[in-house]
Amino acid sequence: RLSCIRNNIWLASCGVLSSGLAVLSSFGLMLFCGVPFVVTVANAPFLILGVGVDDMFIMIATWEQSSRKKEKSSVKSLLAETYAEAALSVTITTLTDVLAFFIGTWTAFPSVRSFCLYTGTAFVFCYVYTMTFFGAVLVLNHKREEGNRHWLTCMRVDVGKDQAENSCLYNACCIGSCSRQPSQPEGEHPMSVLFKKYYGPFVTNKWIKVLMVLLYGAYLGGSIYGCIQIREGIDLRNLANDASYVIPYYDDDDKYFSTYGPRVMVVITESVDYWNELVRLGIESCAQNLE
């Protein structure tokens, strides 16, 4: 925002900080519990950041809608209404993410299991910090705005007769408007107007409802078919560079040796006197019996 009072840079930064705290808490707890840290876990912070920022936007948008509807309401009632509206959406999002990743812990791959444990726990912490830490930051930011304080310095911003002689640049930085008038709260966001006036009536049309049900049925059927067809495993070609010599090796291996099944190896786990001819004959006999 161009307004030096309603600029929410610190609010957005605290939303990102909330996601960072969730990642630190999750990693700390999992490492304390002895869960192995694998390379794939390094991707978890990006997932948590995406969901955390989304939750932050929901909280901020709901807060602003509540404050527009109830301009004279107390902070307590504004926060209560914000949680009443936003907490349901945030909770459902978090539950689906947590369930998805905790179901992934049933896999036979240890690296995937560790990744799902770290990420699922981080989602839980992200939810807790959004509902507690970020809610408190919303209230503090609201009090700063009510006090007409600058977003960066938190100094009180006053518009009086002595500001009339100041330059436009000074007024833009220290007052928030070149017109030498205090900046006013913005109206409804254009995207909100688009969804409320155009998209909402469009999707509530009865023919569109029927089309939506049919499309969802087709999607659901395709999803069930895909779940039936999926097989657990990994194609090692996908782990190599496109120009790697490994890819033609696996192609030739599948072409010429796939009919023979997996390799079988014998491991002798104890010390053996290989100099003894009888021992060597015994090993040969064992190998022949296995063949």
UniProtKB/TrEMBL annotation:
Keyword Magnesium: no
Major place of residence: membrane
Annotated compartments: Membrane
Family according to the record: Belongs to the patched family.
Keywords, ordered alphabetically: Glycoprotein, Membrane, Transmembrane, Transmembrane helix
UniProt-listed InterPro entries: Patched_domain-protein (IPR051697), PTHD_SSD (IPR003392), SSD (IPR000731)
GO cellular component: membrane
TM region(s), chain numbering: 9-38, 44-63, 83-109, 115-140
Entry-linked Pfam families: Patched (PF02460)
Topology of the protein relative to the lipid bilayer: Multi-pass membrane protein
Domain called SSD: residue spans: 1-140
Organism: Nesospiza acunhae
UniProt protein name: PTHD3 protein
